[in-house]
TrEMBL record:
<comment type="similarity">
    <text>Belongs to the universal stress protein A family.</text>
</comment>
<dbReference type="InterPro" id="IPR006016">
    <property type="entry name" value="UspA"/>
</dbReference>
<dbReference type="InterPro" id="IPR014729">
    <property type="entry name" value="Rossmann-like_a/b/a_fold"/>
</dbReference>
<feature type="domain" description="UspA">
    <location>
        <begin position="6"/>
        <end position="144"/>
    </location>
</feature>
<protein>
    <submittedName>
        <fullName>Nucleotide-binding universal stress protein, UspA family</fullName>
    </submittedName>
</protein>
<dbReference type="Pfam" id="PF00582">
    <property type="entry name" value="Usp"/>
</dbReference>
<dbReference type="InterPro" id="IPR006015">
    <property type="entry name" value="Universal_stress_UspA"/>
</dbReference>
<feature type="domain" description="UspA">
    <location>
        <begin position="153"/>
        <end position="285"/>
    </location>
</feature>
Length: 287
């Protein structure tokens, strides 16, 4: 697999179809190859499971063929609708989260549906999406089937000054510029933290804005045509980003911010945004 490929976790579910559509849309701008990966998981007790395939007594050649036909049809349909793109498909055996994590090491971007076949309907982001997002080796975009791509709407990114949030900022700048979309940068701060250091709210607000402006200076100089708006306010970062996602085509966050626990691979803000955002969410980490 080339490092320039966009990898799509595909199981035939509506959310997976939405993820594929998002990936194809991205590839039309970047020229990258899109590769569909269907992970075929066998159960070790009394039965077997394969997303999108009718259950059987035990894995057999017919079941495997059914999966391969599903993937090939999706590849054919995608390639026909996008004649300028290279679209490939593959079927792998093993636990979906683990296999996708391993495959992400060789991809430029991994795109997932928020829930696949077998997901709990009460969860906006399923266990596979959350696990892969936490452990992937490349940026991960999670797409819900009921949140179609909204071309022209802004790209939103959360920046708190941490190293990972600055990586997320760079990712967001690239996506906004490539889509000719405005970029909205959000920074929140906790009043209690600043009061403990003897700052009043006005001083804290000014300091946070100055820090954000410094983070943006490089990008404003290197991408002068990009429309950038900023929002600095006291409050809960996840809540602010979820609200901002209502009129966004993409929300970008780092895996963890400056307040995250060092041992946590996916911070609380990222998890809340994944669960509640109204548009696709990109979670970015350093490779």
């Amino acid at each position: 697999m080339s490092g320039e490929e966009i990898l799509v976790g595909y199981d035939g579910s509506p959310d997976a179809a939405a993820a594929l559509a998002w990936a194809l849309d991205e590839a039309t701008r970047t020229g990258q190859t899109v590769r569909l990966t269907y992970v075929f998981e066998w159960l070790t007790v009394g039965g077997w499971i394969a997303p999108g395939v009718a259950p059987g007594a035990w894995p057999d050649a017919a079941a495997r063929q059914q999966v391969e036909q599903l993937v090939q049809q999706a590849v054919t349909d995608a390639a026909t609708a996008n004649p300028g793109l290279t679209v490939r498909g593959e079927v792998s055996d093993g636990p979906p989260a683990l296999m996708l994590q391993e495959r992400s090491a060789e991809a430029a971007l991994l795109v997932l549906g928020s829930r696949g076949h077998g997901g709990f309907t009460g969860l906006l982001a399923g266990s596979t999406a959350v696990s892969v997002t936490a452990h992937a080796h490349c940026p991960v975009v999670v797409v819900r089937g009921d949140t179609p791509t909204a071309t022209g709407k802004r790209v939103v990114v959360g920046v708190d000054g941490s190293e990972l949030s600055l990586v997320a900022l760079g990712f967001a700048v690239e996506r906004a510029a490539g889509r000719d979309a405005p970029l909205h940068v959000v920074r929140t701060w906790a009043p209690a933290q600043w009061r403990a250091q003897g700052f009043d709210p006005d001083e804290a607000q000014a300091a946070e804005r100055a820090s954000l402006d410094e983070s943006l200076r490089r990008w404003r100089e290197s991408v002068p045509g990009l429309t950038v708006t900023t929002e600095v306010l006291a409050g809960n970062a996840a809540s602010v980003l979820v609200e901002a996602s209502r009129d966004a085509q993409l929300v970008v966050v780092g895996t963890r911010g400056r307040g995250g626990l060092r041992g946590a691979l996916l911070g609380s803000v990222s998890q809340q945004v994944l669960q509640h955002a109204h548009c696709p969410v990109a979670v970015v980490r350093e490779r």
